[in-house]
Amino acid sequence: MRVLLTGGAGYIGSHTLLKLLQEQNEVLVLDNFSNSSMESLRRVKQLANRDFDFRNGDICNSTLMNDTFNAFKPDAVIHFAGLKAVGESNDKPLDYYTHNVTGSVELLRCMRRHGCKQIVFSSSATVYGEADYLPYDEQHPLRPTNPYGRTKYFVEEIIKDWTASWSEASAVLLRYFNPVGAHDSGRIGEDPLSTPNNLVPFISQVAIGRLDKLNVFGSDYDTRDGTGERDYIHVDDLARAHLSAVHFASKNKACEAINVGTGRGATVLEMVKAFERASGRPIPLNMAARRNGDVAKSIADVSKANRLLDWEAIHNIDDMCRSTWNWQSLNPLGYK
Ligand code: NAD
Ligand code: WQD
Fold first, then answer.
1. Does 205 lie in the same domain as 239?
2. CATH code at 52?
3. Which of 264, 262, 260 is CA-nearest to residue 308?
4. Same domain, 294 and 169
5. What is the number of the ligand closest to the CA of 147?
6. What single-letter DSSP state applies at residue 115?
7. Structural domains of the chain, count
8. For ligand 1, is residue 76 a contact (CB within 6 Å)?
């Protein structure tokens, strides 16, 4: 298949790109490098031992998007491009609406114009908000609590309307839970440009000595040990889910929202222990106040992914921490 990857130089995009190349798809990556570098693409090319097309540009640039569709003629799009920091989205909501919502509208318009009928969209578990029940299934009410989450919710709705208006179109809205880990080679991984907001990259930078200690945000939640519980999903499993989703979209005229997680939760302290086992290094902790906007638990019901995509996660939290540590220790400064 010919697959256009928006945001393909980023963390999840680069891992998915590698799998698509290994499965002999023709790929074009379009990325503006606002949160990534050319180095990830150079390394994917080495790992795959194959070349692929690439354009440096913004999904909001309609001239560039039209040129790209004209030249590459994709069968499908996997749409990763967007801004993703929850805290930043409270300070700069219009940047989030522009990149995430306007950019997606531009992309869908271009797809329709060029007859490209299939899209897999990077949505997020954050669309659910506070849980009425757990695990979250795809029917759970959607009540995102921050601008970032609302952009994901709005784009899901826009894609539903887009598929409803075009009988040949199909879409899979993948709601990722908490992606972590890195490729086994240690050559590609998550490389936050500034101090990480997310737990595992933060722990990893404590272990390598770039940060002093981990602030544990809240120890009085209603969980096994009082710390927040999440459904962490290995990026390698997540990348596989994209290949299954593209395949599903090529066979089914539908618009399906599908959770991508393991169906199991781990607390902050359990992740810290797993990382200490993986790295052999102690992680100093500071028990801190709850972080604004955090929920106690977030766990996926993954039965729809099992059923429709014939996919399930195979990696556990030890695999996730081992691969993160391998990447971090081989690349103490990330791609720099
Ligand atoms: P990332 O920041 O590593 O990757 C996003 C890529 O998109 C980057 O390479 C960035 O340079 C590019 N980009 C951003 N805006 C662009 C634009 N306007 N035009 C072209 N390129 C642009 O993030 P990631 O972790 O790989 O996430 C990929 C997608 O998955 C995002 O849409 C994110 O919201 C979503 N998601 C991520 C997580 C997570 O925890 N990592 C969880 C749920 C959903
Ligand atoms: C996990 C747990 C924290 C950092 C976020 C986004 C979500 C999605 C995935 C994009 C929580 C605790 C964290 C730290 C800590 N991204 N923690 N100390 O908040 O579940 O989800 O990333 O779509 O939209 O909101 O992930 O990794 O930030 O936090 O104690 O320094 O770790 O309180 O319990 P979260 P996270």
1. no
2. 3.40.50.720
3. 260
4. no
5. 2
6. T
7. 2
8. no
Q: Which atom of ligand 1 is nearest to the CA of 126?
A: 43
The CATH number for 279's domain is 3.90.25.10
Candidates 148, 153, 176, 232; catalytic one: 148
The model carries a pTM of 0.98
Dump the DSSP string for 274-325: HHHHHHS----EEEEPPPTT--SEE-B--HHHHHHH-------HHHHHHHHH
Task: Give residue 101's domain range.
Answer: 2-182+233-261+306-314
Do residues 252 and 295 share a domain?
no
The reply to whether 131 and 244 lie within a common domain is yes
Residue 61 shares a structural domain with residue 124: yes
Same domain, 160 and 40: yes
Count of Cβ atoms closer than 10 Å to residue 327 Cβ: 22
- CA–centroid distance, 268 to ligand 2, in Å, is 9
pLDDT tens for the chain, 336 residues: list them: 999 999 999 999 999 999 999 999 999 999 999 999 999 999 999 999 999 999 999 999 999 999 999 999 999 999 999 999 999 999 999 999 999 999 999 999 999 999 999 999 999 999 999 999 999 999 999 999 999 999 999 999 999 999 999 999 999 999 999 999 999 999 999 999 899 999 999 999 999 999 999 999 999 999 999 999 999 999 999 999 999 999 999 999 999 999 999 999 999 999 999 999 999 999 999 999 999 989 999 999 999 999 999 999 999 999 999 999 999 999 999 999
Measure CA of the first residue to CA of the last residue in the chain; give whole Å: 33
What is the DSSP secondary structure assignment for residue 126, as one 8-state letter? Answer: G
> Quick one: 108 and 251 in the same domain?
yes
